[in-house]
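input
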Amino acid sequence: MKKFPLLLCLIYLVTTSFYPSGSENKKSLQPLSVKEIKLTPKKNFSPKNPAEEIYRQLQFADERLNFEVFEKAYLGFQNLKKSGKLQPTANLLSVCDFSLSSNKKRLWVINVDEKKVLFNSLVAHGKGTGEEFATQFSNVENSHQSSLGFYITEQTYTGDNGYSLRLFGMDKGYNDAALERCIVMHGANYVSEDFIKAEKRLGRSWGCPAVPRELAEPIINTIKNQTCLFIYYPDQNYLAGSQWLKGSEEKDKILDSLEQQKMATN
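output
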């Protein structure tokens, strides 16, 4: 009988020796430490278009300036600044869209820093440029035609047309004879809603971008002394040839490529 308890002890030792201890078991069941991986958001490779950012915030109370016209005006404005023709701090951009009827308010004065339309006004084109619509442009004296392109505003003076603003043409062959031709901004009685009602079109100048008499002084005082004025018309020769519009083709290629990539991934 003494051998039986010894046998039981032997069996117990043999059977329990193959199992890990409780502390070892607990250690093996401890949770794994997992390092958190933060996913970075996908980069937007589309370059920001500053002109679009500004345009989106502009409030147009009357006539709305076409975005493509504004984009071209802004491109030239920036190129003039880069070339040193305008001060780096310049923030006023005036745009005449002569593709529109003269019966519309087709002059805009914009503060691009504050993203505000300061003025939206009627503006006349030259007698030789067309009737209600502008169709012809010239850089030649006595043509009585308007001139396309970018201008830098100069000093004011008082002449035959009252308070006036000299304009320096920046596009060679298109408007660089502006000073010699006395192409200036001034007020005129024929630039008015009353004239439009009577004649079915706005009055015309001898080539100057004339504005309503009552707005001449506030507009001129706002944009005088080294600000940018752009007179637009969809003349393909001018748009392709102006040195101040260089860079638009490269930008268009980039945006077209990005648009194609976007369509391919959708």
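quick obs: Residues 18-46, 253-259 have pLDDT under 50 and may be disordered.
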